[in-house]
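In the design runs reported in the main text, the only information available to the sequence generator was the tokenized backbone. The following block is the verbatim input for one such run; it is reproduced so that readers can re-run the procedure and compare outputs position by position.
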């Protein structure tokens, strides 16, 4: 739970939750999964702390509807976790050589994508992911978006996603 959910999933959706438009499908998907996780946790806690769970449900105007008996992380997360470890090992080498600060300063070339490209970018916490013939982690040479701190190739101040969100806000 701590490693796969807190360290991996929450890190990967942080940017989507903070910076995507409130109605964007990716943000709604993340909120849905977080709420589902909360419900599963409440369901697990219920036999041990029923009054606490009742108070929480009442305070949040939620109800606990069974059956939510088996929710697990899909097996693709094993592959994603291994990829994340591989990329983090490379970014750590660059960081120790003082070439890189945060992962958002990196662009990554992968041999294939285990998830849609945008999700891989979020899971790895980098600014860009592309597919190529050789695994590579490099410093991104684009511009840093002042809103989401990711790097992008456009010469404008905000990245296209943030510019769109700011326009509709
Ligand atoms: Zn941005």
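Verbatim output:
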């Amino acid at each position: 739970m701590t490693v796969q959910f807190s360290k991996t999933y929450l890190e990967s959706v942080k940017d989507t939750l903070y910076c995507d438009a409130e109605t964007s499908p990716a943000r709604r998907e993340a909120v849905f999964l977080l709420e589902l996780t909360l419900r599963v946790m409440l369901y697990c806690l219920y036999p041990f702390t029923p009054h606490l769970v009742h108070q929480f449900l009442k305070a949040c105007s939620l109800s606990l509807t069974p059956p939510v008996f088996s929710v697990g992380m899909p097996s693709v997360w094993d592959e994603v976790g291994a990829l994340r470890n591989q990329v983090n090992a490379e970014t750590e080498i660059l960081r120790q050589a003082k070439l890189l600060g945060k992962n958002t300063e990196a662009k990554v070339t992968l041999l294939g994508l285990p998830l849609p490209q945008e999700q891989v970018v979020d899971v790895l916490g980098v600014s860009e992911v592309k597919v190529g013939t050789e695994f590579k982690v490099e410093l991104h040479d684009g511009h840093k978006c002042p809103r989401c701190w990711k790097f992008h190739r456009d010469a404008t101040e905000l990245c296209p996603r943030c510019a769109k969100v700011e326009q509709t806000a």
